[in-house]
Design brief:
single chain; mainly alpha
């Protein structure tokens, strides 16, 4: 009797785990950069897949440009209408730098403000940090062949290699919190 119960229990665990794996695989199908599970390997499907991927990539680029323009426009409007917010951002900007120049290229205002805070907190020249994050030439701030964008943490580590990785992560989190607080800055009417 014990052997039967043990066998049934083991069988139920195996069935449960196989269901979990199947469920997880079905959730991730088609979400990665590789081919989705339901694609076949025939030549006509490969060509069609490439065309579809190109079309999807173009849609994503267009959406990214619209999103970037939207956050920049919204941010500029807020800078014009909210004196306290404008003062806070201007205090973070390097001397002689305007918002449009400083913010150009960043994905969103959070990334931009966090970079401003890291620049101030770690005394990293903002243009160097921006160039490293966006994969730009540090002197001209123009696109640089073979250079890839980096995360805020990767940029800090590259520009300040003497800072331990654990401290870099602390600084990234700190800058994220400061960016949120800066975003909450409002002129009280």
């Amino acid at each position: 009797m014990k052997k039967l119960i043990t066998f049934l229990f083991s069988l139920s665990i195996v069935l449960y785990l196989s269901g979990v794996v199947t469920y997880a695989q079905s959730k991730s199908a088609g979400s990665g950069p590789g081919p989705s599970v339901n694609q076949t390997h025939g030549p006509s499907n490969i060509d069609k897949g490439k065309s579809d991927l190109h079309a999807d990539h173009t849609k994503v680029e267009t959406a990214d440009k619209k999103d970037h323009q939207a956050w920049q426009t919204k941010f500029e409007t807020r800078l014009q209408n909210d004196a306290a917010f404008r003062a806070k951002i201007e205090s973070l900007l390097p001397a002689g730098t305007n918002f449009q120049t400083a913010a150009s290229g960043f994905k969103n205002h959070g990334q931009f403000i966090a970079a401003l805070h890291v620049s101030k907190n770690l005394d990293i020249p903002f243009n160097q940090l921006k160039a490293t994050m966006l994969g730009l030439d540090p002197t001209t701030l123009q696109a640089q062949a073979g250079s890839n964008p980096k995360s805020l943490g990767q940029a800090i580590h590259e520009l300040r290699p003497n800072i331990p990785e654990s401290e870099v992560q602390v600084e990234v989190k700190k800058a994220g919190k400061e960016a949120i607080e800066t975003g909450k800055t409002k002129t009280v009417s």
